[in-house]
Design goal:
Helix content: 25-40%
Number of domains: 2
Structural class: alpha/beta
Radius of gyration: 46 Å
Number of strands: 9
Shape: elongated
Strand order of the largest sheet: 3-4-2-7
Order of helices and strands: HHHEEHEEHHEEEEE
Distance between the termini: 124 Å
């Protein structure tokens, strides 16, 4: 774009090229008018072109000098939460008596299993005939970045006798890498989706606490109001002689 100064320079240049009024009058007397006007047009166009080139060069010279360098490379580190996939000898359906109790927060899980992250833990009998799993609900696990089916599959492997250390002692693992101290368990993303593990037909599940949930001996939920302690003295009668033998 030509600035105001360039326009002024262009006007001045045109004024120097165009003939004056006296010169126009002289043209009529010295030569045919048509030839003189044609020559004037040619001179005018050449002058305008020269001025445009000059002002354009001046304007271009005012542009800042930009040095094009190498593109900037941005490195982003993404941390993936991992979990331990059980080895194949333990990664199978559990065939003993299974009870699963759910919780809404990690503190309740830690109260039962202090040396854990508060996501899930398992306790078994010595012969692994009975297994008790304490874990967060599916909703709570999802909000911690863990998949419910994967966590349940991990705990069922403990029901089958699998053991692994509670900590890696600061050792770092890559995805897909196996942990020798965990009998070959493999590290995968904690939110990996997988099918629901098969549970024993007799599995007993206790819903999340709170609130308090009452169940029957066959683990069916029922209202807790019917279990309120009644005042036995409200229906008592005075002692009678017939009561003494």
């Amino acid at each position: 774009m030509i600035n105001h100064q360039c326009l002024q320079a262009l006007a001045c240049g045109l004024a120097s090229i165009l003939p004056s009024r006296k010169q126009l009058v002289g043209l009529r007397d010295t030569a045919p008018l048509r030839l003189k006007v044609k020559a004037m047009k040619r001179s005018l166009l050449l002058g305008v072109a020269a001025l445009l080139l000059t002002t354009g060069a001046v304007h271009a010279g005012q542009r800042p000098y930009v040095e094009v360098g190498k593109p900037r490379i941005v490195t982003r580190i993404i941390h993936i939460q991992t979990g331990l996939l059980p080895p194949s000898q333990y990664d199978k359906p559990y065939e003993g008596e299974l009870e699963i109790q759910f919780f809404k927060n990690s503190e309740d899980v830690k109260n039962i299993c202090p040396n854990t992250a508060g996501l899930a833990c398992t306790k078994t009998t010595s012969e692994y005939k009975k297994c008790f799993i304490y874990m967060l609900t599916e909703y709570a696990l999802k909000h911690t970045g863990n998949a419910y089916n994967f966590a349940l599959r991990h705990e069922l492997a403990h029901c089958n006798g699998w053991h692994h250390p509670n900590t890696t002692d600061g050792k770092k693992f890559n995805l897909g890498e196996k942990w020798k101290e965990a009998e070959g368990g493999k590290w995968i993303a904690a939110d990996t989706k997988m099918p629901t593990p098969k549970l024993p037909a007799s599995t007993k599940m206790l819903p999340a606490y709170p609130p308090v949930v009452c169940v029957t001996p066959d683990w069916k939920s029922e209202p807790c109001g019917s279990r309120e302690i009644k005042d036995i003295w409200s229906t008592a009668r005075p002692l009678q002689k017939s009561d003494i033998r």
